[in-house]
Structure formats: structure tokens, C-alpha cells
Amino acid sequence: MKIILLGPPGAGKGTQAKTLSEKLNLKHISTGDILRAAIKNNTPLGIEAKRFVESGGLVPDTLVTKMVAERISQPDVKEGFILDGFPRNIQQAESLDVFLKLQADLAVIYLDSNEKVLIQRLSGRRICQKCQAVFHTQNMPPKKEGICDSCGSALIQRPDDLEETIKNRLLVYKEQTLPLIEYYTARKKLMRVDSDKEPEAVIGEILKILKK
Ligand code: AMP
């Protein structure tokens, strides 16, 4: 099965993808994670993508689409995968349709969330630069402030989680990604989940929907 998690920044795509990946035994492909790793490692892709990621804009389609095409053609995802962060506009969705040859086993889960909730989640998010574990200053604080529970490294705030950049990311989402709701509804692939709820309730709903 191929699953796309669609939704605004802060809707919980990464959190849900991680749990779903464990429960369904499907690989989690996060374009944001791939890009952040490329930036950290100063690869040619990372050097090109850096300014877009840090300003909260979209990395050009040609770069991201090639990156996804390469990843989903690998043997470990032949049986399926969970895409988190792609597609983010109509052009990317059309490219994905071509790669997947409009396959029937595609489910698009739309994580719908209130803007106030999104801003609260994003502005309090802290990540471990070493093992990528995710915390929140209020919703999921680490045992020791500023320190990762899993590996003991320092937690940081993603540069694109700063307030001004959050606003830009939400704007980019509304202008470019929101039209995908209609795109996948028209193709009868979209299923909506209320992601203002606690992560455990959201995953329960997603699993229920996927069983239908
Ligand atoms: P995320 O971790 O999904 O919030 O992505 C972080 C950033 O990576 C985004 O704000 C974009 O700058 C970039 N990015 C991730 N996925 C895509 C994509 N499909 N198209 C363009 N840019 C992307």
C-alpha cells in the first residue's frame, strides 16, 4: 500500500508517519528529513536546497521530484511506503501519478488542523540534532530541559520553526498545497482525519480508515 500524509506544517505528519510505518511495516519517506540531511552533509542537493528550506519556501520541483523518484524506485519500497511532505503542489502530484502509474492502492490521508494549534505545535517543537527525536516544550517536554531523552544530545529549534518562518510556511501551504485536497478528492483518494486530537487518537482513526 502507498500512503500519502497530507496536511499543513505542524499537523503531525512526521509523528503519524513514524507510528504508521512501525504498525504497517512500511518505509517512511520524509522529503523534509532527506533535505535536512542533505543540508547537514553539504551535498550538492543540500547546498541548493538550503535557502528554500530555511526561509520556509518550497524547494524547486525539479530537485524534489528527482529525489523522490530515486527513492521510490528502490527495492525496499516495492511493496509500499508512507510519503510525508510530498507532494506539496499540483505539479508534484502529477509527477507522482506518472511514477505510480495511477495505482489503485494509493490512500491519501489529510491531517486537518486548526491554525492556532499548528502555531503552538511548531513554535514549541524541539528536535535532537543527533538522533532526530522530536520533543515539545509544553506538549512533550524532555525529562531534562534542552536534552534529548533518547541519546543525551542537545535539543535545537529547527530554523524554519521560528515565528516569522512559520507564518511563511503556512502561507505557502495555503497557496500551493491546499489545492491538493481537491485534486485527490476528485480522484476519490482522500480521507480526512481531525489531527487536533492527541496523536494516539489520530493514529486510531487513520488505522480505522485504512481498514475500510
Ligand atoms: P517538512 O519537514 O516536511 O516540514 O519540510 C521542511 C521543508 O523542506 C519545507 O518547508 C520545504 O522547504 C522543504 N520541502 C519538503 N518537502 C518538500 C516538497 N515536496 N517540495 C518542496 N519543498 C519541500
How would you sum up this structure in a few lines?
With 212 residues, the protein is α/β, with parallel strands linked by helices. It has helices spanning 13-24, 31-40, 44-55, 61-72, 90-100, 115-124, 163-177, 179-186, 199-211, and strands spanning 2-6, 27-30, 81-84, 106-112, 125-128, 134-136, 155-156, 190-194. The mean pLDDT is 94.
Rounded average pLDDT: 94
Ends apart, CA distance between termini? 13 Å
Low-confidence stretches: none
* Share in β-strands: 15-25%
Q: Mind summarizing the main beta sheet?
A: 5 strands, parallel
Estimated radius of gyration: 17 Å
State the helical fraction.
40-55%
The helix/strand class is alpha/beta
Q: Secondary-structure element sequence?
A: EHEHHHEHEHEEEHHEH
Strand order of the largest sheet: 2-3-1-4-8
User: What's the tally of helices?
Assistant: 9
List of distinct ligands in this structure:
adenosine monophosphate
State the shape: globular
Q: Strand tally, please?
A: 8
